[in-house]
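Technical note accompanying the year-one report. For the benefit of new consortium partners, we illustrate the data format agreed upon in the data management plan: each record pairs a sequence with a structure-token string. No post-processing was applied to the example shown here.
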Amino acid sequence: MKQPSLQPVDVAVALALVLEPGVVYGELAETLGVSTPTAFRSVQRLERARLVLPGQRRTATVPLLRLIEHGVPFVFYPVLGPETLGVPTAHSAPPLAEEISAEDALVWPTLEGTVRGQSLEPLYDGAAALPSINPELYHALTLVDAVRVGRARERTRAMELLSGWISERRP
């Protein structure tokens, strides 16, 4: 028997469930730009990891925040690449870009991108389309990237913003 484990896309799925708790799998998949089976399997993994409440498709927010802060940077460590055209992420994207000035931009590589910078492999393939599909989810995922790749100040501020973002959406 193989040890099951979370996949990088699961972080995005958990954040999408913060936005729309209980959403049906087809809509969840559309929000993320993934297939319905991918969304379904992701929710199953998240339930087993106790990051989503069983049968409810609601995120367990405290465990999710702990995972993002203490696990994601190590388990889904950043993979940086050459300079390219892409979508801004981490400290280069809103909301952190308004607070933190940095010379070098970080981007998710895509030909449809508007910014040139060092490439950062996104947590899942469809992430670069999020600014037009779901801007709010895009901003949350860029904060996760700031935690993955940022220095102490960026990580701390990203966690504050992410925690506030999640708190605003809790029923």
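Partners are asked to follow this layout when depositing records. Strands lie at 52-53, 58-59, 80-88, 106-109, 115-120.
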